[in-house]
Amino acid sequence: MTEITKRKRLQLALLLGSLALLGPFTIDTYLPSFPTIAKEFDTTASLVQISLTTCLLGLGVGQLIIGPMSDVQGRRKPLLIFLILYLVASLTCAFAPNIYFFIASRFIQGFSAAGGLVVSRAVVRDLYSGRELTKFFALLMLVNNLGPILAPVTGGTILAFTDWTGVFIVLACIGLILFLIVSAKLEETLPSEKRTPSDPLQVVRNFGSLLKNRQFLGYAFTQGFIIAGIFAYVSGTPFVYQNIYGVSPQVFSILFGINGFALMLGSQLVGRLTDIIPETTFLKIGLLVSNLAGAVLLISVLLKAPLAAVVIPIFFFVSSLGIISTTSFSLAMDAQGHIAGSASALLGLLPFILGSLAAPLVGVAGENSAVPMGMVIFSASFLAFLSYFGLVRKPSQRIQVPKSRGI
């Protein structure tokens, strides 16, 4: 590989990673504001957490729409439309008059943020396959995983200077910047001759073929359940860390950001060693780590252990996501190049549907109990384990490294 090619790969990874960052930033940046938003709107913690649920639902539904749309119209045009919508929705959240309007606006914001998630993954599949797909996706994850580090820290920093509305004004600015960058830098990666016909029935058939593919579903549910556990962690830790353990919003942001390094660690292990260790082996290791970490976390919260006994297993649980997400995505997408947008959408839809169900469960016992969060995280890990070993009959075998296309 020439230095120019390496440079282009890095530039593409930075651009696509920035688009994918829109999801984590939409989810995570306002997390330190949860207690403040509850007071501002004079509402309950559960109702504030529902704003996260509606955002996750929006992200799921949005992917279902933009995925097939990008298979028909190409990657650039739908992405630009969704980025404009994101800018408007972010401003609407900032100036919401009540919690219910805020919740509805969060759905639209999540819906529009889906554009960056789906298109970034579909572009990767347009350009790469096989182990090259795994390697590039690991590189993309390196950029993408900066989101969980930067987003809560950004949110905590913004709160040090202004109120929670400033968070959403900053998100609106990010949407505008991404729109300008995409307009200037992102080339179309899906030629007209490779696009699917504009036929709603064909879209349905594409999704039907994916839903009938046992291995694809196995990988999709494996990834979906583990990410649902991550959303339980995302929804629960603002209250667990701040209300139960009494940490400040700034300390919470630091603790939350440390787990971004855990994500990076997991994904980069896969990217560096995938020529030596098969993806399926990495996936099994990730599932083992997530289940052990989930079990330790559940025991810790049941015993009301010190903060360190909660933070450490969460770190390992989050690191397992870096392994599981990278490998399961690559294995699921490898044979779906002809309908990469639809496959990417379905892979994105399941985690957000499952995550939207998991997030409210962590608040069922109130703001002063960490047990529901521990139970949901452990259950999600175990269900991911069952999904892989129950649905994926035979691991994919890759005999040689397919060549990637240039950009």
TrEMBL record:
Q: Does the keyword DNA-binding apply?
A: no
The source organism is Fictibacillus solisalsi
Q: Which GO terms describe its molecular function?
A: xenobiotic transmembrane transporter activity
Note the InterPro entries from the entry: Efflux_drug-R_Bcr/CmlA (IPR004812), MFS (IPR011701), MFS_dom (IPR020846), MFS_trans_sf (IPR036259)
**Alphabetized CDD domains for the sequence:** MFS_MdfA_MDR_like
Q: Where in the cell is it found?
A: Cell membrane
Regarding protein family, the annotation reads: Belongs to the major facilitator superfamily. Bcr/CmlA family.
Carries keyword Transmembrane helix?
Answer: yes
Domain Major facilitator superfamily (MFS) profile per the UniProt entry, residue ranges: 12-398
Query: Which GO CC annotations does the UniProt entry carry?
Result: plasma membrane
- How is this protein named in the record? Bcr/CflA family efflux transporter
Q: Where are the transmembrane segments?
A: 46-67, 79-101, 107-124, 136-161, 167-186, 216-235, 247-270, 282-303, 309-333, 345-365, 371-391
Q: How does it sit in the membrane?
A: Multi-pass membrane protein
Keywords, A to Z?
Cell membrane, Membrane, Transmembrane, Transmembrane helix, Transport
- Gene Ontology biological process terms, A to Z: xenobiotic detoxification by transmembrane export across the plasma membrane
